[in-house]
Amino acid sequence: MAKPVILTVDDDPNVLSAVARDLRRRYAEQYRIVRADSGAAALEATRELRQRGEAVALFLADQRMPGMSGVEFLAQAMPIFPQARRALLTAYADTEAAIQAINSAAVHYYLLKPWDPPEEQLYPVLDDLLEEWQASHSPIFEGIRILGHRWSPEAHALKDFLARNHVPYLYFDLETDPQARELLEQYGQPAPTLPLVRLVDGRWLVAPTVAELADQAGLLRQAAQTHYDLAIVGGGPAGLAAAVYGASEGLRTVLIEREAPGGQAGTSSRIENYLGFPSGLSGGDLARRAVAQARRFGVEILSPVEVVGMRIDGPYRFLQLSDGSEISTFAVVVAVGLSYRKLDVPGIEQLTGAGVYYGASLTEALSCQAQPVFIVGAGNSAGQAAIYLAEYAERVIMLVRGDSLGAKMSQYLVDRIEASPHIEVRLNSTVHAVHGSAHVEAVTVRAPDGSEERCPAAALFIFTGAMPCTGWLTDIVQLDRQGFIPTGPQVFEDGRRPKGWDVDREPFLLESSVPGIFVVGDARAGSVKRVASAVGEGSIAVQFVHQHLARLR
Ligand SMILES: Cc1cc2nc3c(=O)[nH]c(=O)nc-3n(C[C@H](O)[C@H](O)[C@H](O)COP(=O)(O)OP(=O)(O)OC[C@H]3O[C@@H](n4cnc5c(N)ncnc54)[C@H](O)[C@@H]3O)c2cc1C
């Protein structure tokens, strides 16, 4: 296989040779560095690479070039190599144009000239971009293969699980994919129960559960130790942040996640307001980076494993896990976040996973191609999903119970929805039934005047009110009426410390009504429901964990 290409373009010969020199120094072993002295020459080289079947990992273009600017070149190169990362080299005076380019030409990053020293100004950015490209690019596929029916909820569960855990897989749809038949023949037995999974080493799993597949895919489900300094429940942004800070500061740390690290944020198609990522980043990408960072510091991540209970014995907190085992720890960070409330309308239960999805199921976007889909909800998550799905579906219809889209949604999302010709917003409208035998075929929508209309639909994505995943903590810590967990000053009852409080200090800011049990992120009473605040709380909580542990010793 030819090495993937980094293509750099600049009309100034001095700058071009300096860029090429620095690129070769760092990347020549893994990538072929191709240079061009104008936008037109770069475009021609790009087309030739495509024709020869080579892969471009990164375009690095100077903005100021006569004839064709860097942004213009990147915009034209994008459809030829859509997965390639696109970076712009700009002078300080062109920063404004570069920021605009993030939107207009989907530029991933801009770098300022000069970039000395490259170890600080160039390589960290390019390393990141190339790592992202590698994560999305799979030249020869050597991962897990899943064979199933298009609308099978069981196949959906396996795909969704692997995608969210960043395990590469290919899906073969028996109805539409000719290769699916070949794979079935390789299995060799007639009419197996589906879905069928072929592992990397050639073994087969017949209709496995998510847990069985997790074991075979090499995910860790059993704790290596029986006792930890810190156990974190939930692997969303808050839990992952606590894990990174805990382990990097020397605590023996375990993180237990019942589905896949990333949490709600991991299902987001594009987080645009997280500091330091001016062109936004996908939730999957954020999760992948955070998991790599946590593992690097030695965090043990158990997934998929659910914490189902907790018992307290003196300074020890024992977490009870879904497989019946227990983990002991001195400090627990509860970072269990929220999950969507189930919608109770006729037809919905039997079609969940077969066209009805709670939250953004990005893996299913492709199967909605050129068909109408419905979204229920009007929060930011619903807005993001609408914009993402509009790239695939024929039409996205948002059903909003209230009389305005902007009541709960950020203005930048409202603006994009209003500008999209593929998204229709129906205010004061609700879904009243879902129809279909094997998968969703139609939904009944109730309009503001009470009339009902049966509309064809390929899928229904539900983003209605979410509730905290704290049922397992009832009777252990104080919960408020909605199930959120009060912390710090909120746990005082009539100005007195909570019942059973057995240490001689006040509860810390993020501590629940039980010493040593901390709460961060969306599940905390009064929390701000944002990625950045979840990350902030997860990081801060570790300071309180240290103080708690110091008093135990
Ligand atoms: C589609 C979507 C888009 C969003 N976009 C944005 C955005 O652009 N910007 C922004 O700032 N915010 C956004 N948000 C909100 C943001 O994602 C959340 O505020 C954030 O993820 C909260 O983090 P958390 O760690 O507290 O909880 P979560 O992300 O909810 O993570 C909690 C984790 O705990 C796990 N868990 C729960 N119970 C247990 C248990 N008993 N045992 C083990 N594990 C358990 C869950 O499986 C989950 O992985 C979005 C949310 C969604 C759904």
Automatic annotation (TrEMBL):
Modified residues (4-aspartylphosphate): D62
Protein name: FAD-dependent oxidoreductase
PANTHER family, per database record: THIOREDOXIN REDUCTASE 1-RELATED-RELATED
Presence of the UniProt keyword Phosphoprotein in the record: yes
Organism of this sequence: Candidatus Chloroploca mongolica
SUPFAM superfamilies: CheY-like, FAD/NAD(P)-binding domain, Thioredoxin-like
Pfam family, one: Response_reg
UniProt entry keywords in alphabetical sequence: Flavoprotein, Oxidoreductase, Phosphoprotein
Response regulatory domain span: 5-128
